[in-house]
């Protein structure tokens, strides 16, 4: 075990980023065109980074497994993006956003990174408005704001219920401009399957052309992974079905540390599971908790009644009663656990009993249906199309579901992993959210990293690099390419009886039951054994039809599930090693009246795990190696988190 150097700059919290920008090394504008940067993923973080770096003069190669960057999962973010503009004059500030984020993450995030995020948040809004993002506006023309969980101010900018899509279109327009100028070379329908390191530095990637099956090599001076999170390890999640962890996991197997993998977020506001036929779950934006009231019947015998027939005195508004200060706007981990509690107590509604009501009756009475439509109309339409129930007339039914992953590749203040030249941006890194992400902060982090952090910090590394580097003829490219091809042939040759989805569903059930919304030592130990057995089952009995030289969705799934089977075990190991509860990591042995009980003396650190052996194409054997980054809190006092 070794200590990790986060490279946080010296100085007061408010001066760190400005001083750091001045002190980092710069690249002569005429020399930027001599460098090539590889950007993997073209969601908000990737598109913003690729566009910004190309605008600076670098040559950029951008990769997406979609047919267009516009299909990145960033479009699914609905409710808004945080920024400390204080347009409402309600007491917001950069420091308050910083404080709320550290507290919301249950004091398990890095102060320096979080304060920088709060600082640049104000610039993000200006950038996006200049790009034409159609944020909602008040009657007088000013940008509107609403509240999100974990905050007592209104700092969330939004575009109805499709904020992520509109922000991505803004980033995509900037990216498209650079594609047109020739500074960005776009590779669509290409999936990264390995990282290439030469002399310890990230110098390229191996990809598979998803249309032709061709395995391709690409060289560059630096590699930026902007590939999102890993919630699909649970099979059912709010993520798009194609979301996966392969790029980050293959980088991990090449030496990049994976930090806090057990920190996963269960979103409280999702359409409940309806049966075994489902392939994913649908998110209902947290913004709905601004005006919607969450409740269940006080009396179990009322569960089958029409909710309009249940009198107010017989409605249990459990968040409002338990947390009077924040009410329905408690953070996601708190709201999710309390929904689970009331359902476990037999008060859940719906056919399965695994749902609570999200009711807009009072908001419609107060503001009128047209005002509610203005704010949430497309979300209400989506809910009706899926459930065949009209939320203007009856309450929505919601239940928690896997959503976001706070864990990810370990990065320092510059967003560089422990592998020189390899960066991780957005949800692919661990750095800003601690053990629980506040709503509307994912879009903020993705754009902050892409537009305002990486363009500075990547240059700091490139300024030390030679213009001429090894090309794809180097033996490390050949070795990595051969290993990828061998892995594909191995998966195709098994010829078993189980489809990738069948294996994935089994993995998801193990992870949800034992490493989901709550965990305990016995369950985690059992889960590790079960995942190891399932991994052996995969390599003996997986059935993948088709060939490798064509479009083959089953092969894509199988390769990704092989990585999930290893990542799932690491999540379990991390959860078992952390003997405390914090944020989304809720160990049942460590709680106070149903709230998370942290152990700051022993666990106030980032857990960064090293892959346990050197053959990256073999599945995990033995225990990973733990490295710690001690967290230092100089500006926020460590206290028991309370939203009451």
Automatic annotation (TrEMBL):
Reaction(s) the record says it catalyses: a quinone + succinate = fumarate + a quinol
Co-factor requirement: FAD
Active site: 332
Keyword field: Cell membrane, Electron transport, FAD, Flavoprotein, Membrane, Oxidoreductase, Transport
Pfam families referenced in this protein's UniProt entry, alphabetically: FAD_binding_2 (PF00890), Succ_DH_flav_C (PF02910)
GO cellular component: plasma membrane
Localization per record: Cell membrane
Gene3D superfamilies associated with the record: FAD/NAD(P)-binding domain (3.50.50.60), Fumarate reductase/succinate dehydrogenase flavoprotein-like, C-terminal domain (1.20.58.100), Succinate dehydrogenase/fumarate reductase flavoprotein, catalytic domain (3.90.700.10)
Record protein name field: succinate dehydrogenase
Organism in which the protein naturally occurs: Bernardetia litoralis (strain ATCC 23117 / DSM 6794 / NBRC 15988 / NCIMB 1366 / Fx l1 / Sio-4) (Flexibacter litoralis)
């Amino acid at each position: 075990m070794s200590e990790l150097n986060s490279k946080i700059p010296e100085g007061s919290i408010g001066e760190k980023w400005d001083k750091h920008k001045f002190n980092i090394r710069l690249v002569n504008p005429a020399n930027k065109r001599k460098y090539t940067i590889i950007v993997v993923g073209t969601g908000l973080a990737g598109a913003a980074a690729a566009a910004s770096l190309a605008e600076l003069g670098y040559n950029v190669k951008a990769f997406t497994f979609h047919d267009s960057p516009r299909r990145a999962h960033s479009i699914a973010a609905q409710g808004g993006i945080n920024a400390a503009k204080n347009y409402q004059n309600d007491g917001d500030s950069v420091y308050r956003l910083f404080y709320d984020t550290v507290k919301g993450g249950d004091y398990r995030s890095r102060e320096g990174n979080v304060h920088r995020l709060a600082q640049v948040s104000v610039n993000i809004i200006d950038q996006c408005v200049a790009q034409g993002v159609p944020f909602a506006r008040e009657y007088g023309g000013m940008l509107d704001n609403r509240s999100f969980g974990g905050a007592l101010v209104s700092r969330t900018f939004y575009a109805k219920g499709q904020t992520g899509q509109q922000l991505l279109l803004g980033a995509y327009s900037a990216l498209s401009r650079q594609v047109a100028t020739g500074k960005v070379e776009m590779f669509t329908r290409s999936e990264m399957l390995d990282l290439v390191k030469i002399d310890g530095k990230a110098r390229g990637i191996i990809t598979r052309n998803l249309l032709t099956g061709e395995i391709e090599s690409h060289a560059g001076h630096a590699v930026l992974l902007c590939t999102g999170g890993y919630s699909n390890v649970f099979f059912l999640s709010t993520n798009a079905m194609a979301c996966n962890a392969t790029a980050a996991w293959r980088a991990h197997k090449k030496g990049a540390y994976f930090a806090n993998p057990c920190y996963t977020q269960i979103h409280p506001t999702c359409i409940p599971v309806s049966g075994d036929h489902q392939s994913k779950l649908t998110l209902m934006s947290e913004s709905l908790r601004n005006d919607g009231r969450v409740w269940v019947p006080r009396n179990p015998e009322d569960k089958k009644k029409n909710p309009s027939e249940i009198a107010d005195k017989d409605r249990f508004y459990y968040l409002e009663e338990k947390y009077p200060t924040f009410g329905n706007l408690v953070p996601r981990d708190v709201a999710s656990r309390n929904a689970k509690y009331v359902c476990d107590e037999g008060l859940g509604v719906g056919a399965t009993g695994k749902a609570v009501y999200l009711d807009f009756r009072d908001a419609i009475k107060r503001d009128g249906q047209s005002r509610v439509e203005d704010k949430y109309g497309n979300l209400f339409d989506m809910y009706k199309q899926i459930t065949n129930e009209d939320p203007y007339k009856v309450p929505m039914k919601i239940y928690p579901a896997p959503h976001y992953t706070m864990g990810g590749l370990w990065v320092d203040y510059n967003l560089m992993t422990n592998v020189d030249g390899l960066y991780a941006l957005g949800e692919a890194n661990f750095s800003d959210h601690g053990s629980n992400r506040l709503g509307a902060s994912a879009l903020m982090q993705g754009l902050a990293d892409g537009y305002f952090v990486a363009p500075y910090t990547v240059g700091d590394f490139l300024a030390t690099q030679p213009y001429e580097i090894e090309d794809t003829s180097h033996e490390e490219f050949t070795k990595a390419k051969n290993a990828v091809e061998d892995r594909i042939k191995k998966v195709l040759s098994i010829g078993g009886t189980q489809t990738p989805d069948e294996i994935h569903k089994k993995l998801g059930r193990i992870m949800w039951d034992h490493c989901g919304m709550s965990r305990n030592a016995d369950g985690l130990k059992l889960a590790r054994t079960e995942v190891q057995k399932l991994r052996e089952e995969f390599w003996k009995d997986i059935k993948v039809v088709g060939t490798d030289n064509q479009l083959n969705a089953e092969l894509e799934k199988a390769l990704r599930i092989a990585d999930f089977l290893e990542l799932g075990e690491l999540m379990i190991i991390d959860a078992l090693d952390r003997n405390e509860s914090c944020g989304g990591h809720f160990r049942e042995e460590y709680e106070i009246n149903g709230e998370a009980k942290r152990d700051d003396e022993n666990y106030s650190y980032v857990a960064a795990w090293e892959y346990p052996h050197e053959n990256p194409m073999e599945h995990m054997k033995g225990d990973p190696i733990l490295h710690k980054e001690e967290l230092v809190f100089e500006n926020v006092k460590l206290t028991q988190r309370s939203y009451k």
